[in-house]
């Protein structure tokens, strides 16, 4: 890496301004030219700058350190949580005594990915802000990881369109024949598929999931194969291929039983329940949802509890529906979740005999804007249709048309494959 880029990187890492670094050595404007590799400074000037940053003028490549960094990243991707933190602490110490700038940059990138894994979002945001100040000095492979990790960051913030833009940006580097492991390619394809699924792009989800699945099958990675089958099941269902959806879930269940993975089984039975619900087999759906709850922790059961509530609502069993609202709200007390707070509140209103203007305000000003902001097409459609019917029943046809237009727009976004 060019010396100017190295100086800029370490200055930003140490939270120094150009004025602080250049004071008593050179002008700020001259430092700016050095950092942008627009001029060649004397060895004496570079030595002064490096001394102030406490780095070596001559960069030394440290191959064992690079290997340790990529091993750590491998473990992050493969969810080997037991020793991730210890390795993070060990690598922090190694990096502090290293003069390998390339290794330092990879450490910062992988640290960002690690913070996302640990759900340390405030720290991740602060680190990303710093990374953005020097991302233009990245080599192509660094830019690949930057795009991939920022895509994941946006996904976790429910910013699915921008997440997809960054993940597709990373995908472009795969076509440049850069040296990536097959598991890395599969992880990117699966991440793209997952994001497309949130955007309801079912045909593309199936395509990218198969890209990932082919690699995972060749590596006998059973866990990731099962996750791919679940994603296929969800999106075959969206394409109304109910038989293929059921087949994918059954394949996933077979793997999950073989692995004795309770979390995976909970996810599979939940999705099988949703398949039954979509085909209006609500009693079967409830049985499958209850099976899912046997494998889920309380704080991970909100989606299944809401689905049981929905099934009982469709069966017009008001008493059971109200019981599951209470169950959901009890969990929300210790595990706040804005989306499910809205879901349960909506059905509290719907189970009342008379809907009030309070319900109207809640849906128009709070709920539907929330789901539009978070790009949740399913609920934009579902709740906008609800409001269109609500206004039709009250002969407010202009308002009804407004919500049908929202439904049409959401459907176009959802199925524009």
Please describe the topology of this protein.
Blueprint lengths: L2 H11 L4 H5 L5 H8 L7 H11 L9 H15 L6 H13 L4 H17 L3 H11 L8 H17 L3 H15 L7 H17 L3 H17 L3 H17 L3 H18 L2 H17 L3 H12 L8 H13 L3 H17 L3 H13 L6 H17 L3 H17 L3 H19 L2
Helix pairs in contact: 1-4, 5-6, 5-7, 6-7, 7-8, 7-9, 9-10, 10-11, 11-12, 11-13, 12-13, 13-14, 13-15, 14-15, 15-16, 15-17, 16-17, 17-18, 17-19, 18-19, 19-20, 20-21, 21-22
Describe what you observe in this structure.
With 417 residues, the protein is mostly helical. Among the domains are: 1-51, 434 Repressor (Amino-terminal Domain) (Orthogonal Bundle); 260-353, Tetratricopeptide repeat domain (Serine Threonine Protein Phosphatase 5, Tetratricopeptide repeat, Alpha Horseshoe); 355-416, no CATH class. The protein has 22 helices and no strands. It has helices spanning 3-13, 18-22, 28-35, 43-53, 63-77, 84-96, 101-117, 121-131, 140-156, 160-174, 182-198, 202-218, 222-238, 242-259, 262-278, 282-293, 302-314, 318-334, 338-350, 357-373, 377-393, 397-415. Helix 1 (3-13) packs parallel to helix 4 (43-53) and helix 11 (182-198) packs antiparallel against helix 12 (202-218). It is elongated and about 80 Å long.
């Amino acid at each position: 890496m060019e010396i100017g880029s190295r100086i800029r990187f370490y200055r930003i890492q140490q939270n120094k301004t150009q004025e602080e670094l250049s004071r008593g050595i050179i002008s700020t404007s001259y430092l700016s030219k050095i950092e942008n590799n627009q001029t060649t400074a004397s060895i004496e000037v570079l030595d002064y700058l490096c001394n102030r940053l406490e780095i070596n003028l001559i960069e030394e490549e440290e191959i064992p350190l690079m290997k340790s960094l990529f091993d750590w990243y491998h473990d992050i991707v493969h969810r080997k949580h037991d020793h991730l933190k210890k390795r993070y602490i060990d690598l922090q110490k190694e990096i502090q005594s290293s003069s390998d700038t390339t290794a330092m940059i990879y450490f910062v990138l992988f640290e960002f990915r690690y913070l996302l894994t640990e759900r340390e979002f405030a720290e991740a945001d602060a680190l990303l802000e710093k990374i953005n100040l020097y991302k233009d000095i990245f080599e192509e492979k660094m830019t690949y990881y930057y795009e991939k990790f920022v895509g994941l960051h946006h996904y976790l913030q429910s910013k699915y369109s921008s997440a997809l833009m960054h993940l597709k940006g990373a995908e472009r580097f795969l076509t440049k024949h850069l040296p990536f492991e097959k598991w890395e390619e599969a992880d990117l394809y699966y991440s793209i598929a997952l994001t497309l699924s949130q955007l309801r792009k079912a045909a593309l989800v199936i395509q990218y999931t198969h890209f990932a699945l082919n690699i995972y099958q060749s590596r006998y990675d059973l866990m990731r194969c099962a996750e791919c089958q679940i994603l296929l099941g969800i999106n075959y269902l969206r394409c109304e291929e109910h038989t293929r959806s059921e087949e994918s879930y059954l394949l996933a269940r077979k793997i999950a039983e073989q692995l004795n993975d309770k979390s995976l089984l909970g996810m599979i039975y939940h999705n099988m329940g949703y398949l039954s619900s979509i085909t209006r087999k609500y009693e079967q759906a409830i049985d499958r949802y209850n099976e899912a709850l046997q494998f889920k922790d309380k704080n991970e059961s909100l989606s299944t509890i809401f689905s049981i509530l929905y099934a009982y609502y469709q069966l017009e069993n008001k008493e059971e529906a109200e019981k599951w609202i209470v169950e959901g709200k009890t969990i929300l007390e210790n595990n706040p979740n804005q989306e499910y707070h809205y879901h349960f509140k909506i059905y509290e209103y719907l189970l009342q005999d008379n809907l009030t203007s309070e319900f109207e305000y809640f849906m128009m000003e709070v709920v539907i804007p929330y789901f539009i902001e978070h790009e949740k097409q399913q609920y934009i459609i579902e709740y906008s249709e609800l409001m269109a019917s609500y206004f039709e029943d009250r002969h407010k046809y202009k308002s009804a048309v407004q919500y049908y237009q929202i439904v049409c727009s959401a459907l176009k976004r959802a199925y524009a494959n």
